[in-house]
Each structure stands twice: as structure tokens, then as C-alpha cells.
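Hi there. Long-time user, first ticket. I'm pasting a complex I've been working with (about 854 residues overall). I'd like to know whether the download I got is complete or cut off, because the file seemed smaller than I expected. Thanks.
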Amino acid sequence: MVTYILKRMISIIPVFLFATLLTTGMIHLSPVDPAEAYLTAAHIQPTDEILAQKRQEFGLDQPFFIQYVNSIMKICQLDFGISYVSNKPVWDEVTNRMPATIQLALGSILIAVLISVPLGFLAGVKKNSVFDHFSRLLSFIGASIPSFWFGYLLIFFFSVKLDLFPVEGTGTWQHLVLPSITLAFPLIAIYTRLLRASVLENIEEPYVLFARTRGIKEKTIMGKHVFRIAISPMITGLGMNLGKLLTGTIIVEAVFSWPGFGRYFIEAIFNRDIPVIQCYVLIAASLFIISNLLVDMIQMYIDPRISRKEGYKQ
Amino acid sequence: MFNKINSRNVLKTLALILIVSSVLLGCANTSDDVSSSKGTNDNMLTFAWARDIGEMNPHVYNPSQLFAQSMVYEPLVSYQEGGELKPHLAESWDISKDGKEYTFHLRENVKFSDGTSFNAEIVKKNFDTILNHIDIHSWLGFLSKIDHTEVIDEYTFKLTLTEPYYPAIQELAVVRPVRFLGESGFPENGDTSKGVVEPVGTGPWVLDEYKVDEFAIFKRNENYWGELPKEEKIKVKIIPDAETRVLAFEKGEIDLIYGEGNISLDAFKQLESTGNYETSISEPVATRQLVINSKKEQLSDERVRQALHYAFNKEALVEGITSGYEEKADYILPANFPYTKDIDAKVIDYDVEKAKSLLEEAGWVLPKGKTIREKNGQLLEVELMYDSAEAIQKTMAEVLQSEWAGIGVKLNIVGVELTEQVQRFKDNKFDINFFSNYGAPYDPHTFLNIVASEGFGFNEAISAYPNKDELLKQIAEVTKTTDEEKRQQLYSAILTSIQDQAAVIPISYIKKTAIYQKDVTNFTFPANRDEHPFTGISIE
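Hi, the file is complete. Here it is re-exported in full:
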């Protein structure tokens, strides 16, 4: 298992390199000149002289490959440069806003798990029951409704009409409820269906039949045997969605005025604050990579067959 | 197959996730609760704004917000209704005959919010730090013309320019960078470009509490030299999303939404129609214009440009697209700016027949069975560029396309990103473009400066004007002349000539909107486009 993890760790490196190559390359391809973007953001009249000076300062006059190597060296030291707009280190700006985003993401994972696990499980066990129909309806809505609109609906009903929660801002747990639900809703849709399908698949397995013939109670079979195995794809899904969750916060944070990292990113886009955009894309990419690795590790922990299979391959 | 330890582990992992999440939620629960309920506090006005107020430094730009800077920091001169320039921190000023020396007599009873007094020394100190970074501030004309500044006595400050420049007084009214930070706000080296120690100003408001991206609370400056604000506090809630602002307003968490584009016209109209709120629309703050590139062959003839002006129903266009929140513009600058009151330019009314005959006169004829006019085998086909993110520009472009098709002009419309739009304008790679001027307190001289400067788009766009050289000369002269009457004559001549030759077509006057709860009284729009609107405001 240790060698497997080590191997996976090493395989992260090329993926990471590719991600940095992509971000550096994209900035090169975009029609926006970073030096000019900086000057515009700083309200300085861009003359040819200042432009040339800034390009030199940002290293934009160097060949692409050198720029790329330089940016990797800096990124390895968590130096993402200085924000064009605030003139502060990008990494500080980002880490200041991280806790709020993480809070929101955890809140929505919590809600997603609390709702989709029982719902998906029951929908699977009691196929075609009320639970099943309800979960199907919920999943259809969750998968198709745009999250910003769902956010407005929640605000309109639960905040403006019923006055149960504040419209926006932070401070109390009430503030967290509506944005977390908004962010969790599409996840609930996915996980419920995932768990249901997985439960149905497992019920057909020979081990269930075997357990039944042994006279084990149906409750025990479902709760102890089927559930444990059926939950595994959901954990994969949860991990795969961590990156998605982060990018999902962009819209939710804007709608609910949540002072997180996604909202900061939107503003960076409007201001063409390139170092911030680059940092965001890299963090999102890293999160995808790391969460995938984490999921694999958890999977191995839960289902030892996976690591054994890996072992056979070697 | 599976031992019990594994199943316990699954549960443990899940439990761990739950515990970590609840702990984090718990943290949120215990953190300070700042007025989560209704924003309508007895003596606090809650105001929604899209962006964080930024660093409260009077000498920096983006991302600091103009309205917030103007709450804390004050100018020597203030810009009032109709472009009138009134004494503010300067009680009066003398201008030497040659128009180069400005002597300001400062108000004597003014204190900064920390109790220190406002005097000529601190004015000079502020000017010095600004002038040390002239590369950032050179866009503001008079700053780059300052020869030196001096302290004459405790309350007399003198500014000497290298050449006469009449807008100096008007430019002193801008929100940044010529406003004044108190001594204790300066960092040790006196350079404010990298930040201030604390936001100490002379203004009616003091920053009291601030959480990045969440809110800022300003409290009344009890030492204020002028009339004390009626409200004790102003809370600025940062709500980036326009629809959320509206929902928060409907719920009563917000007392006032004010600005340009801070509320969608649809939402504004809908809230207005409920009758539950007060609404208000400002005087024109700028003009939405079409700039026609006379370098383009098809557009080089004045008659063609005029025909385009005649050929669309401006009133219906503006009314229809902006629901009446903008007003049909007859002149390229609104008449409530200095020197723009009596411009003699010809007002163009909708007249399709006139447009057609102008095109015929110019030699553009409509061949039988075709819909596009031609001249010497060339089609009358031009392109209009608009900012793809701006709904109003896009819709206007579409309407113009269909209106101009009626007179045999093929208009292609292209939506581009804002930076690209600006770049193409500067590089003269456009046929027709949207533009709007800076507004008060920058105009009319800033607009003319943009027209005259190379590399901004206008200078090249008016290339086919036979009197272009003459115009440029007049524009250079207008800021230098010390004769008030001559200045007015020059402005009239320049603005009339630019408009009559139709390379700049006025479309509509842009206005600000405000919507507020019924208990908010005495709301007025500031005459200065960038100032805060809280003077005199109160909640009953």
C-alpha cells in the first residue's frame, strides 16, 4: 500500500506540471496583456515606456519556456506574485478568504451526506416506494436547476417571505444554512442516485442470497452487508466532487455575499488580476488531483480488495 | 470476507466528517454577530454596495471605492449643482493674472477626526506625496502642470503652475487623489502610495468597523466642522450580486440602493410599481455617444454620418431600451456641466426622408432590387462595436441595425469584451463605437482632452473634419485662456463643430438611480458623480 501511495504521489508531478503549463499558456494566448492589465488596474496611463518597464518587471519579455520555469519555481515556494489590484501577495489574499469557503464547502458536504445517504439507501432498498419516487423527483430537480436561481428562490421564500434566515452575509449559523443548501442540492441529486443504483446492484449479488439462506435478518443484511459495500461509489463521488464544490462556491458566494475565495476570483476576472486567476486555477487543479488520491486511499482502507488487485498488477 | 474493523472504520470516517463539520459550524456560531436582523436601526442607515470599500487611502485608486473615500476625505473645492465650484476646505482662493498662481485661504476651524488641525502644512504634505508619484496621477491635468507648492502661512497655501490651466480649481473637486490625510495617517517615510497608517480625514464620517468583503460601518465625525450628519452611522453592506441586493432591500435589511447599474432597470421598475418604496432619478451624469470613424471610407462624408443620425428614432430607442431611465440626448455633453449650457449645435430630429436624400446627395444610391446602397461598386456596409457584457449597448446596436437597414445601410454588429473594445478604439480599428464621457467634475475639459489626444480613438475618428487642425488648436487654447468669456466662446465653437460634423452622435443622457425605504428622508444625488449621497440623509 505504501508503495502504491508513493507511486501515486509521484504521478501527481506530471499532472501538476501540465496544469501550470496550461495556466501559463492560457495567459499567453489571451488577448489581454498582463502589463497593460496591471497599469489599467492601477489607473496608470499606459505609455510605451511604462509598458516595456512593466513587461520586464513581470518577466514577460522572456521566452515562454523561461517564463514557465520561473513561474513553477515561484509556485513551489507558494509565491503566486502580487495582486495587480491590491498590491498584496496573492497567496495572503487567498488564504485570508479560504476559511470562509472551506466552511461553506463543509457545511454543504454535511447537508449532502445527511440527506442523500438515508434517502439513497432507502430508495434502493425500497424500490418503487414513495421514498424512491421522492428521491427521483428531488434528483431531477437538483440536477437541472441552476444553482444561482435555486439560491434566489431560497432567499425569496425562506428569507424575504418567511423571515427564517438572513438574506446574505456571515456571522451566525443561520447565515450558513441557505448557501450550504444551495451548494449541496446538486450534490444530493447525484449522491442519492449513485447510492440507490449501487444498493440495487448489490442486492442482486450472490452474497446477499447466501446471507439470506443463512437466515440472517433482512435488516442486518441491508444495514451491515449491503450498505458497507454500496457506499463505496458514493465516497468516490464525494471525493471527485471536492474540486467541483470549490468551483461551485463561485456562484453561491456571489449570490449570498459570502466573503470567500470564489467571490474574490470573480472580481479578479473582472479586474484582469492575472496572478489571482492563475493561483485559483492551480488551486482548483491541485484540489482535483489531491482529492482523487485521497479517495483512492479511503477506498483502499474500506475495501482491501482494491490494494490487493494493485498488488497483483505489480 | 470483511471483518468488523472495516465496517467500524467506515462509520468512524463518516463520524469524523460530521464532527469536523459541526465544529466548524460551531465556530461560525460563536463568532461575533453584527446586526444580523433588520438593518433599519434607529440611527443607522444601511446601504448596499457591490464591492468592498477597499483601502481607505485618499491617494490610491481601484479597488478603493470612490464614495467611501469621499465620506472620510474632503477637497479644497466642492463641485455643486450645474457645475458651480464652491469653497470647501478652502474658504476662498485668488488666481494671479497670468493664471499660474493659485493662493488658497484655508478654513481655520477644521479638525481631522483625531483632533489635529487642518492647515497649510498638511495640505503641502499631501500634495508632496501625490506629486512624488506623478506617473500614477498624471491623468489629472493640473497635477502634471504643478511647478511647486508652498506654505505661505498657517492657513494660506500656494500652488504655482508651469502654465495657465483654468480647470485646476475644478479638478481640485475630484475624489482622488487630491484629498487630505491627517498627519497620523502618514507612514514614517511620508509615502502613502503603499498604504496609510490609519484613515484620518476631515470628512463627516469616520471608519468605525470594517470586515473585508462583508461590511463597513462609518460613524459620524463628532468634530466635523460643517453641519453634522443626522444619522449617527452608515453601514455599508457588501453585496456583489444585484438580485441579492434587491432581495435584501425587499426584506428591509437595506435602506438604500444607489448608483449606476447597482440595480437592474427591471427590478427598479418592479419595486417602483409596488408603491412601497421611494425612487429617484438623478440629473444627467454623462452622455452615451456613438463615435463614427471618419477615416473609414464609407463614413468619411459628413452627409453619410448625418444621415445615420437622422435615420433612427432616438426617443423611441432610449425610452424603449432604458424604460425612460435614460433621457434622449440632443447634445454630446449634458447641459448641466460648466460651459455646456448654451451650445448652438443643430438638434437632429428623426427624419428618414431627410436621411435618404442626404445619402442620395452623397452619391450612395439604391440599385433596383437591392437593399444595400452602393457607390462606385462599393457597398454602404459598416460595423458597430459594442461591449458584449452591456445589455443596453447590445440592444441599442440591434435596434440601430434594423433602423439603418431602412435607409439602405448594412450595419454589422460585433460584441467584444470591454478591454478589446477600448483597445480597438485606441488602435482605430473600428467603424462605429459606443462611448460615454467621464461626467462631473471632469468635464467638459477632460472630454475635449480625450478628443484632442492621440491614441484615445477620437483624434483619429475626426480625421475627415476639414477643420480638424483648427479644432485641435482651439482645444489646446481653451484650458490656457484666462478670459472667461473667450473660454465660453471656444467651448461653444468646439462642441458645436464636433457635433455638427456628426462624428460624435449623442444618444442618451445616463442617470443615476436610487431606491430607498419610505422612512428615509432628504435623499439627494451628489452633483459630483463620484461623491457619496449621504449628506443630510436621515431615517424617520
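A couple of notes from our side: The CA atoms of residues 158 and 323 of chain B lie 49 Å apart. Confidence is low (pLDDT under 50) at residues 1-5, 23-40 of chain B.
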